[in-house]
Amino acid sequence: MIEYPRPGPPRQDRVGLDRLDLKMDEQTLEGFSDGVAIADVTQPDLPLIYVNSAFERITGYSRAEVLGRNCRFLQGADRRQPEIAQLAEAVSELRDITLVIRNYRKDGATFWNELRLCPLRNAAGTVTHCLGVMHDVTVHRDMTEKLRHVVAFDDVTGLLTRHGFIDRLADLSGEALAVVCCDTDQLRDVNGTYGRAAGDAVLRELGQRLGNQPGAIVASRLVAGQFALALRVEPCQGAAEAAVAALRRQVLQPYALPGATVSLTITLGWARATAVTEQGAAGPGDAKQGDAKQGRAKQGEALLIQAETALYAAKAAGRGEVRAFDPAIERNARRRLRMTAELRHALLHDEFVLHYQPKVALPSGRVIGMEALVRWQHPIFGLQTPERFMEVAEDSGLIIEIGAWALAEACRFAATLHRRGHATYVAVNVSPVQFQRDDVAALLRRALAESGAETGWVSLELTETMLADTNSRTADCFAELRRMGVGLAMDDFGTGFASLRSLRTLPFTEMKVDRSFVQNLDRDPVQAAIVGAAIAVARSLGIIATCEGVETAAERDRLVAMGCPVAQGYFFSLPLAADDLLWLLDNHATLPVPAEPAHADMTGGADGSH
Questions:
Q1: Within 10 Å of residue 34's Cβ, how many Cβ atoms?
Q2: Which end of the chain is more exposed for a tag (fewer CB within 10 A), N or C?
Q3: Helix, strand, coil abundance in the chain, percent, nearest 5
Q4: Residues in Cβ contact with 46 at an 8 Å cutoff, skipping those fewer than 6 apart
Q5: How far apart are CA 610 and CA 594, in angstroms?
Q6: What pLDDT is stored for residue 7 in this prediction?
Q7: CA 561 to CA 567: how far, in whole Å?
Q8: Main-chain dihedrals φ then ψ at residue 80, nearest 5 degrees
Q9: Parallel/antiparallel/unpaired status of strands 510-513 and 576-577
Q10: Three-state SS string across 425-481, please?
């Protein structure tokens, strides 16, 4: 705080300054790099009585031009700034204030002034003057604005970024609108075929089409080839659907490139603002804070997330699909996230176990092998079969770790079986995700070495859905596994579309006929013909045919008559925990047996395929 009084000699360029008694003398004020101005609040219109040299340098005005004037001239005609009202209120209340205000130099150039205003009191405690310290923050402000522009706008299309889009949605709160998300499925193909510049041209054209769509309020490029559009729609029934359909027709029109025309498959998902109003409103915490803007931004982000959720559902249904937001999708997404966390916890805390369903030779009933089936011993819900968690495990990538554990555990159990004198093998289901992302042959070698099991004691079962996408890497892995002596079984034969081709081109040792063909085999001649043909194909190829899901003696007898060599199913045994299976093998040479051993897993699938 500047204290006074101390008389000083009067000067023409310091009108009234002689009335101040400054301990901080003028020489000190002149040394400031920030502008300093002092106004007399006891005079009408608060005239300036002092400015320092930095004030002259920043504003371009000389002392002679400003002394005796109110400093409002620095705002020029730009009087609608909210900061001006804040400044006037602080002066009238004679209190400190710091704010950033837009000012104008003498030559008309804009500059941003970070102004600190504080009252000066005389010895009696009465405010007689105001001291203003002016700091030119134009460079900082310009840099901030540039950074804000980078954050808010996409440099390729000129559209808003995700951040900018959400901020704009906050200003649209309460309007009847829909947010549409679309994804250009072939952007990578365009970039790879025609070059990145062509891909950018397609993105710009798509952005323009979105912005020119009737009812369009604001468009955004979210990421890569994914866009969002806020559409104003009528509140009547079917208006949003019609608007989305019109948008889809527009964006599917061909895109012209230099020397080529391309058509893109575009997938869309959308959500209406009413869903946010009902479900995504700001909570009590927001109301207490009084941050209405933040609350509206949260609603806008919730609406965008719902549209994205619908887009992901559309993409899951297939390229080019359209889906509206369904709260059930959101609930399912939350469930999947929760289950992903629980599966990760289960891996860390050894909650997974293997149960085993015997495979028997027909007609003797002798156990020649068994299928290892993953179970999750959930701490609350008990024993869970893969139908409950396998899809989430594959989507999250956790199947890689679960599959590696299952291979190692199956090898350990195979070694235990042979130490107990049971010359059987253990078959393990391998996920397509694991084959695509892991070196299964190397993984199995390590598991065999650590367990002491031999390669002939383990077999891998593969579904037809995986075989449909067989590539050279997968084929090489199959060949390596066969060189190791590991058996390969085609699981669920007949339910896919790659069966015969895969049997012809890949080195399988076993074909497992799906249980859907075995049910009612003794009463359905069509089923019997299909199963008979599958057994004949396997015999001609020199591989084993195993029929799954055998549940009755009549089905077993019919398979024996047809020459089926191996079968599995509830008729012989349910999937069993390791200890129960060892008890069964130690006490019974053939299956089925008159009574089930204790602790049988009653939750396993009848076909033993999961």
A1: 16
A2: N
A3: 45, 25, 30
A4: 39, 40, 70, 71, 91, 130
A5: 25
A6: 34
A7: 13
A8: -95, 10
A9: unpaired
A10: EEEEECCHHHHHHCCHHHHHHHHHHHHCCCHHHEEEEEEHHHHCCCCHHHHHHHHHH
User: C-alpha 387: how far from its chain's center?
Assistant: 24
pLDDT at 608: 43
Strands 544-547, 510-513: pairing kind: parallel
Closest to 18 in 3D by CA, of 34, 30, 32, 4: 4
Query: What end-to-end distance do the CA atoms of the chain give, in Å?
Result: 80
Instruction: For the chain, give the number of residues.
Output: 610
- Residue 571's pLDDT is 97
| Residue where the block lists tokens 């060189």 | 483
Alpha carbon dihedral 385, 388, 393, 398, in 10-degree steps, equals -50
Q: Torsions phi, psi of 392, nearest 5? A: -65, -40
Tokens linked to 62: 């000389």
Predicted confidence at residue 143, as pLDDT, reads: 82
Strands 510-513 and 487-493: parallel
Q: Which one, of 512, 387, 425, 414, lies nearest residue 462 by Cα? A: 512
Burial of 74 from C-beta contacts in 10 A (0-12 / 13-18 / 19+): buried
Query: What is the rounded distance in angstroms from the CA atom of residue 452 to the CA atom of residue 457?
Result: 11
DSSP result, 466-528 = HHTT--HHHHHHHHHHHHHT-EEEEEEETSSS-HHHHHHHS--SEEEE-HHHHTTTTT-HHHH
Question: What is the rounded CA–CA span in Å between residue 510 and residue 586?
Answer: 26
- 233, 243 Cβ separation under 8 angstroms: yes
Q: Output the pLDDT for position 609.
A: 42
Q: How many angstroms separate the CA atoms of 173 and 467, rounded?
A: 50
Contact 457, 426 (CB under 8 A): yes
Spacing of C-alpha 264 from chain mean position: 24
Residue 272 DSSP label: E
Query: Pick from 47, 43, 50: which is nearest to 14 by CA?
Result: 50
How far apart are the C-alpha atoms of 407 and 72, rounded to whole Å? 80
How many CA within 13 A on the CB side of residue 191? 10
Residue ranges for the chain with pLDDT beneath 70: 1-25, 274-291, 293, 464-471, 496-499, 595-610
Q: What would you measure as the largest C-alpha separation in the chain, in angstroms?
A: 127
Q: What is the pLDDT of residues 497-534, one digit of tens each?
A: 556 777 878 899 999 999 999 998 989 999 999 999 99
Residue 8 CB contacts under 8 Å (≥ 6 apart), including other chains: 17, 18, 20, 21, 22
| Torsion angles phi and psi, residue 257, rounded to 5 | -120, 160
Element (H, E) at 556: helix 553-562
β-strands 367-378, 352-361: how paired? Answer: antiparallel
Smallest CA-to-CA distance from 603 within 280, 382, 353 is with 382
Cβ neighbours of 30 (radius 10 Å): 11
Tokens found for residue 319? 């390229």
